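User: quick one, sequence for these tokens?
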């Protein structure tokens, strides 16, 4: 059983998780029973079985060892009819092998456990206003239903009050399921549905682990993540939201009046069988938008739970917003890369929490902290312990000193406690070179701050240059808005190229995902440490898990503004109007080196809700386009069965994956290919008629490729009129004979510009040796 480690976990959570992992045990006696997902071909069901369930029971009764409590009802724990056909069952490895040979069974896959989970200022930063524009025009998304697949929800949070929200849309088919400390009375006109799917994950977690995690067998959130993401997407207005006074303001979800339906499928970790069940249920219940801040290391789409479930959602025109992952800044780290998913990276907003650190040599460093308890300007000795492993945090090393630690490994939840136990008086947490200058705001329990990599170098060189290094903190206890250059791409935000199909550019765009304030369960400390007795109603968190629900919220507003747009049209509008520049009119930078970010980190750019509601032109696509795309990556007929029931779905010419009518371009040149011609079709959704668009091509460092577009001008005379154009990419790069795999990249954009609209698509050119 492979544990696929993934990534949308904010760092402290990930570390705390690793702390718990040794407790994970297989919850069963000999012989080993595991969870399997059995995919069936519904068209192969023998006629003697009148229902799928009869067929599946027959399989269980026939192909399992009768001596082991073999009642089909206890073996099968989910059946699926929407995300695919099949069921999840507990089987021995031997039984699972037998099942692969049963006629009508497409595949028997081990249920995988994936470590899961990858606002006051952010709506303002996105340019949303209560008095004009998209918010009033859409009545804050009141008629849109956002399904959140996550760790559950804390229903009593003020963010889920339904004051001023109208009756539940009559089309809603969801439910409010009962369980531990949760019943139907916890739902209302804001939280209109809540279900939980834990049968897969519970098989892998001991009761002790579940207890340690404070988990509930109900839709209630024992982790905090789902409460945070749900309130970010669609939380109600809450005045005076803050964490210890920081980030104080009125908190609002992006689609403030949209309805929330929580599908709890994770208890920190999630299993694929639970995710399938959650997504299937959300689709059946009638959600319009799905927000899934989770993922696993990306795999071919036919082996990828998120991609398969999102495909079923796309068939019903549900917009699916997914987190890009937190394993940046490394290339190929992005996940949730299928073109029917909208893949969201994370950037900062223009809000900081500055702390001054004054060194004994009178130099000052600016760090970040949400520590606001006392302002103490005394100087203390500094001690640098590198990675600060627990064994080093002893009084001999730490007593009366400010501890300086490499940050990335430190954020284990118990470290602050250890430092205090050992008599330490403060902590400076240093960013690693790959984290660069992004300062995570942490609600420390002791005087402490995070420092960027440049400050870290300065601090360390000061410490080693003097016998008695000293420092003092000056906590300003304030929140600074509007001064900071923003957005800047977070270093953790996962990067392209797309590891599965490099011809699709991913991530698609970025949204706020750094130091985001949102609702928090009142029984979990803001640091998630059990030693931290403090309780808060709002908390800050960082990750692409935080940016994903921002885009889900914006998509909900677009659904309300344009009810008959396809989900591909919504994604196109989000992408072609996103901004490539920041609040200082410079190209968006990336935190690791403050250099301009490329399309591999920001996709099309930073989401701009107001512009997205009037994009002018859209790149539309429907399910048949996605099927053709899957054919073009040469999936076998059997692999195609995970997506399409029809036999021989790939009969026509499939073309190349880059032919999909996608709002961005990723051109891949391999040896012996020097020209690529791609076609795109634009649909007019503007209201100025006729509207004349001219193309503008911007090259960033594109010396090795020539880009030409034909025609150069497009005239749209009617609403919903379609016009096509061709882009020709010519490579001037000569591959080395040696067969080395050094990759070359080039970037640019193709914009269609009229008097009223700019429809911009980024392109990346990748030369792959193999
Ligand atoms: C639901 O729970 C609340 C509080 O936990 C309780 O007051 C209420 O009676 C319960 N309602 C139902 C229908 O069980
Ligand atoms: C938050 O802001 C409001 C309004 O500006 C103010 O009344 C309140 O005292 C502030 N709360 C904190 C904790 O700073
Ligand atoms: C910091 O600000 C908060 C809210 O404004 C206040 O409650 C707290 O006392 C302040 N702390 C200090 C040390 O001034
Ligand atoms: C730091 O500044 C103080 C006061 O301005 C001064 O007395 C002291 O000599 C300075 N120390 C160093 C190392 O420059
Ligand atoms: C801590 O970080 C520095 C700078 O990134 C690095 O050189 C060092 O190897 C790290 N580890 C330790 C144990 O110091
Ligand atoms: C959307 O609605 C408009 C007018 O109601 C209609 O003309 C158009 O064809 C519709 N578009 C789609 C894609 O259904
Ligand atoms: C798919 O197969 C065709 C024909 O063999 C080949 O030309 C094409 O390059 C393949 N595409 C991919 C993405 O592997
Ligand atoms: C590229 O073309 C050369 C000569 O035409 C041929 O020898 C070589 O095998 C080709 N390489 C690939 C990867 O197709
Ligand atoms: C590509 O563009 C460069 C400069 O714009 C030009 O000199 C060159 O001839 C072009 N190459 C081709 C093959 O069109
Ligand atoms: C749009 O209108 C212009 C002028 O009225 C005309 O020349 C052109 O052919 C029309 N285009 C289409 C696609 O109908
Ligand atoms: C190709 O060869 C040249 C010269 O030997 C070398 O400088 C360059 O780095 C090589 N490029 C690749 C992609 O291997």
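Assistant:
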């Amino acid at each position: 059983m492979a544990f696929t480690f993934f990534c949308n976990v904010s760092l402290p959570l990930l570390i705390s998780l690793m702390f718990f992992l040794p407790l994970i045990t297989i919850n069963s006696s000999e012989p080993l029973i595991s969870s399997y997902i059995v995919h069936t071909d519904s068209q192969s069901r023998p006629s003697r079985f009148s229902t799928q369930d009869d067929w599946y029971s027959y399989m269980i009764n026939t192909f399992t060892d009768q001596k082991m409590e073999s009642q089909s009802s206890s073996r099968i724990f989910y059946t699926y009819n929407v995300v695919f056909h099949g069921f999840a069952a507990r089987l021995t490895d031997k039984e699972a092998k037998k099942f692969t040979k049963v006629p009508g069974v497409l595949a028997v896959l081990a249920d995988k456990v994936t470590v899961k989970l990858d606002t006051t200022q952010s709506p303002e930063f996105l340019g949303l206003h209560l008095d004009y524009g998209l918010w009033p025009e859409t009545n804050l998304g009141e008629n849109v239903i956002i399904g959140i697949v996550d760790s559950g929800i804390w229903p009593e949070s003020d963010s889920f009050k339904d004051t001023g929200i109208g009756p539940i849309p009559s089309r809603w088919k969801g439910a409010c399921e009962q369980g531990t400390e949760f019943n139907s009375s916890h739902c209302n006109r804001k939280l209109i549905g809540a279900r939980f799917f834990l049968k897969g994950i519970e098989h892998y977690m001991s009761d002790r682990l579940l207890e340690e995690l404070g988990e509930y067998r109900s839709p209630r959130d024992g982790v905090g993540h789902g409460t945070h993401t749900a309130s970010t997407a669609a939380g109600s207005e809450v005045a005076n939201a803050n964490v210890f006074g920081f980030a104080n303001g009125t908190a609002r979800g992006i689609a403030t009046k949209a309805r929330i339906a929580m599908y709890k499928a994770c208890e920190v970790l999630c299993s694929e069988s639970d995710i399938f069940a959650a997504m299937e249920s959300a689709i059946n219940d009638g959600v319009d938008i799905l927000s899934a801040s989770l993922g696993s290391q990306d795999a071919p789409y036919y082996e990828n739970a998120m991609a398969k479930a999102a495909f079923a959602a796309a068939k019903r025109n549900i917009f699916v917003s997914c987190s890009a992952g937190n394993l940046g800044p490394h290339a190929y780290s992005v996940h949730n890369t299928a073109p029917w998913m909208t893949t969201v990276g994370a950037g900062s907003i223009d809000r900081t929490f500055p702390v001054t650190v004054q060194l004994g040599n009178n130099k000052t460093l600016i760090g970040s902290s949400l520590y606001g308890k006392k302002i103490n300007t005394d100087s203390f000795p500094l001690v640098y312990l590198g990675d600060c492993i627990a064994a080093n945090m002893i009084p001999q090393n730490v007593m009366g000193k400010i501890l300086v630690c490499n940050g990335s490994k430190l954020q284990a939840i118990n470290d602050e406690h250890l430092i205090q136990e050992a008599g330490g008086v403060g902590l400076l947490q240093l960013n690693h070179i790959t984290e660069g200058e992004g300062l995570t705001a942490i609600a420390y329990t002791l005087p402490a701050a995070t420092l960027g990599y440049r400050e870290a170098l300065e601090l360390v060189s000061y410490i080693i240059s003097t016998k008695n290094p000293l420092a003092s903190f000056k906590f300003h206890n304030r929140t600074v808005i509007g001064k900071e250059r923003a957005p800047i791409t977070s270093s953790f935000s996962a990067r392209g190229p797309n590891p599965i199909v490099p011809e699709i550019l991913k991530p698609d765009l970025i949204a706020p995902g750094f130091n985001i304030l949102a609702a928090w369960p009142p029984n979990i400390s803001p640091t998630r440490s059990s030693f931290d007795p403090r309780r808060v109603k709002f908390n800050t968190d960082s990750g692409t898990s935080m940016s994903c629900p921002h885009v889900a919220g914006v998509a909900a507003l677009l659904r309300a503004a344009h009810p008959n747009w396809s989900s591909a049209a919504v994604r196109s509008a989000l992408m072609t109007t996103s901004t490539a520049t920041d609040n200082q009119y410079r190209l968006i930078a990336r935190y690791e080196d403050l250099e301009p970010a490329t399309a591999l980190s920001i996709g099309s750019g930073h989401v701009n809700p107001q512009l997205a509601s009037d994009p002018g032109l859209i790149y539309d696509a429907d399910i048949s386009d996605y099927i053709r795309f899957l054919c073009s990556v040469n999936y076998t007929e059997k692999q195609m069965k995970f997506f399409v029931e029809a036999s021989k779905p790939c009969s026509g010419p499939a073309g190349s994956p880059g032919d999909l009518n996608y709002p961005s371009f990723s051109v891949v040149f391999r040896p012996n290919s020097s020209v690529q011609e791609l076609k795109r079709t634009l649909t007019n959704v503007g209201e100025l008629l006729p509207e004349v668009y001219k193309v503008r091509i911007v090259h960033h460092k594109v010396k090795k490729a020539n880009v030409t577009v034909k025609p150069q001008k497009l005239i749209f005379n009617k609403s919903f009129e379609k016009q096509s154009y061709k882009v020709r990419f010519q490579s001037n790069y000569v591959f080395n004979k040696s067969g080395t795999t050094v990759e070359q990249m080039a970037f640019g954009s193709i914009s269609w510009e009229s008097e009223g609209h700019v429809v911009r698509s980024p392109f990346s050119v990748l030369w792959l040796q193999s």
